Amino acid sequence: MDPRIDPKLINDCVHCGFCLPTCPTYALWGEEMDSPRGRIHLMKQHAEGTPVTPEMAGHFDACLGCMACVTACPSGVQYNLLIEQTRAVVEREHVREPQERAVRGVVFSLFPYPRRLRLLRPTMWLAGRMAPFLARVHPSLGAMAALAPRVERRQRLPRLVRARGERRAVVGMLTGCVQGEFFPQVNAATARVLAMEGCDVVIPPGQGCCGALSVHSGRQDQARRLARQTIRVFERAGVDTVVVNAAGCGSSMKEYGELLGSEPSFRVMDLSEYLAELGPVAKRHPLPVTVAYHDACHLAHAQGIRAQPRELLSGIPELELREIPESAICCGSAGTYNLLQPEAARDLGDRKAGAVTTTGAELLVSANPGCTMQIASAMRRAGGEIRVAHTAEVLDASLRGVTL
């Protein structure tokens, strides 16, 4: 299928400019063509016959796809669909420089495949030390090394985690690629929290990447292949709800109908969204800690989930929740953005780290593995450290009555 940009979606934009203050790249550079309004102008030019030039591709590549403009737009412009369509066109029509093609080849032949990521785990301790050297070889390689988290031991999850007490629901759980291999403790905490709230948690084998990394970068064929595999896995498992603990994955899975032309047989819900709908029954134990909650873009903007994680955290006795200034501005992670656009990502990461520091919080809570790596890396770069946890880990500690 040849990718096309839908002119009807383009014409929804009235160029009012409400998106400008919310756009991270416009905030960085103040360039019209690096704003949503400017990029839509370029999309219109292409739809009317202008070929994709290197300059045009550069402006599209510079977009984080954070969807802050979607939240801000009074006209309901579906920029999320526009940028995905446009990136598919760029991937098909634009010939990249050999070095850039090589870097993208490494990223997309590695990160969507958990088994390949697993091979990196024994070398993660060395990655940070090698970052300056790798940056001289290529900025993207340096960024990849600097972002490497301190990986805990791998935790094998059973195929079924039984509900504690009375069973209230049966759900599937996505383990993911980056989340599963770099943050296995988050998946383990997610399964425990769901079980303690009365859910049988089905964790089917054969899972991999959901396709989010690929679809956000215009690699539609790879995205569709990974999406179909994910759908097959959960439809075979026979669940009607799949709970996701990574914001980017949840956002993409909720748009499978747009990607594939038909909806899966199950609904997709973020962990905080599902727990808020289910309602709490398990006892919360006190956690005397100050928490800065980070809004992952694909949770807050793409899925519209802001209140639920805050409600869950605020329901923990003695936990103090603090808001991060400029919370709507992206941290610079954005899937593979911090690997493919390392300089802009670094600037945004430094800006976010500074905002987090002003809160004086002891713990940063995020709902997306990319954000966790990005902000932790920026904090280290600034000479500071802050403990980072997923919402599931905080809830898990409170429900079990243990310290974080």
TrEMBL record:
Gene Ontology terms for molecular function: 4 iron, 4 sulfur cluster binding; glycolate dehydrogenase activity; metal ion binding
Catalytic activity: (R)-lactate + A = pyruvate + AH2; glycolate + A = glyoxylate + AH2
Enzyme Commission number(s): 1.1.99.14
Free-text cofactor note: Binds 2 [4Fe-4S] clusters.
Reported cofactor(s): [4Fe-4S] cluster
Main enzyme class: oxidoreductase
Function according to Swiss-Prot or TrEMBL: Component of a complex that catalyzes the oxidation of glycolate to glyoxylate.
The protein, known as: Glycolate oxidase iron-sulfur subunit
Organism of this sequence: Nonomuraea jiangxiensis
